[in-house]
Design goal:
Layout: H1 2-20, E1 39-41, H2 44-48, E2 50-51, H3 63-72, E3 81-87, H4 92-97, E4 105-112, E5 117-124, E6 127-134, H5 149-158
Antiparallel strand pairs: 1-3, 2-3, 3-4, 4-5, 5-6
The chain binds heme C.
Heme C binds next to helix 2, helix 3, strand 4, strand 5 and strand 6.
Length: about 170
């Protein structure tokens, strides 16, 4: 009996270990099923129009944009391509104000249109969370690399001058 309990305890500890070790990758927040009804915004990046391939000269862009290109230029031949920024209509004023404090739930999308992929920023208790989905809602986040949730977090929290509560872009007309 004691032996069985011990085995059980060890097995559950191992399961926890695998989980904490990041072997299971999962997007945070919910897939926003109504994303097609969200508002499209004009930002610094959408004015550039696309995320280019690795050969592009982006030396005149701010460092956070250079790092974004370096991170994603190789996910597809020629780069990720056309992009759109979408905002939950309820959070549009918040995006324009750039003061953070988004309501709980999914709020912002970077739509990689050519790749048919949605980068989704949601909030929970005011804290930004990140998810990566196909257009029809399949979670495609990875354990490491450009499509890891940690990668989103590192950049979106690492550039304090650019990103407020998970929002890195700004309206650009
Ligand atoms: C190396 C930096 C970097 C990484 C990594 C990164 N982003 Fe971003 N992200 C940016 C920048 C810069 C913008 C602003 C682009 C613009 O001008 O519209 C942005 C914009 C966005 C937007 C549009 C709303 C906004 O203005 O913030 C969403 C949503 C988003 N990112 C989600 C993600 C997710 C999810 C991941 C991880 C898969 C991710 N990002 C990884 C730099 C990064």
């Amino acid at each position: 009996m004691v032996n069985r309990i011990l085995t059980l305890a060890v097995t559950s500890l191992m399961a926890v270990g695998i989980f904490a070790g990041g072997a299971i990758a999962a997007s945070e927040g919910q897939f926003p099923a109504d994303w097609k009804k969200w508002d499209s915004l004009s930002t610094t990046l959408t004015k550039i129009g696309a995320l280019p391939g690795c050969e592009a000269n982006v030396s005149t862009l701010p460092p956070i944009y250079q790092e974004t290109v370096a991170t994603y230029c190789a996910v597809r031949q020629g780069g990720p391509g056309k992009v759109a920024v979408l905002v939950n209509p309820a959070s549009k004023a918040g995006y324009e104000a750039r003061k953070g404090k988004f309501k709980d739930g999914s709020n912002l999308i970077l739509h990689l249109q050519d790749m048919k992929v949605l980068f989704v920023t949601s909030h929970k208790g005011g804290k930004a969370q990140y998810g990566i989905f196909t257009e029809d809602g399949k979670d495609i986040s990875a354990a490491s690399g450009p499509l890891a949730i940690e990668t989103c977090k590192t950049c979106h929290t690492g550039y304090a001058a650019f990103c407020v509560d998970g929002q890195c872009g700004k309206i650009s007309k």
